[in-house]
Amino acid sequence: MSELVTDYLDGTLPWHARVKARLHLLLCRACRHYYDQMRKTVRFLAGAPHEAPPADVEQLVLDSIKAHAHPLGEHD
């Protein structure tokens, strides 16, 4: 269910998968709890104000990624 919950919330599951997911939610308390938490999180974030980060943040993030990136094929 955890891999389907986003599509279920978005309403993008095919009808047969949506019916299966709904039935599973009716029967499984743990998944129902997970679904409720995700639904509340989505609702909360949708209502939250979206402020643009300071202008230099994007460059700081890109610089940090580049500094920690490994050349192709090399790993720790």
Describe this structure in words.
This protein is mainly α and 76 residues long. It has one domain (5-66). It is 66% helix and 0% strand. It has four helices and no strands. The protein has helices at 5-10, 15-27, 29-47, 57-68. Helix 2 (15-27) crosses helix 3. It is elongated, with a radius of gyration of 19 Å. The mean pLDDT is 86.
How large, in whole angstroms, is the Cα Rg? 19 Å
* Euclidean distance between termini CA atoms: 34 Å
Contiguous uncertain segments of 5+ residues: none
Q: Classify the secondary structure makeup into a structural class.
A: mainly alpha
| Fraction of residues in β-strands | under 5%
State the helicity in percent bands: 55-70%
User: What gross morphology would you assign?
Assistant: elongated
Number of strands: 0
Number of helices: 4
Give the total of domains. 1
Largest sheet: none
- SSE arrangement, N to C: HHHH
Which key terms come to mind for this protein?
single chain, 76 residues, mainly alpha
Brief characterization of the structure:
The chain is mostly helical and 76 residues long. The chain has helices at residues 5-10, 15-27, 29-47, 57-68.
Could you give the topology of this structure?
Blueprint: H1 5-10, H2 15-27, H3 29-47, H4 57-68
Helix pairs in contact: 2-3
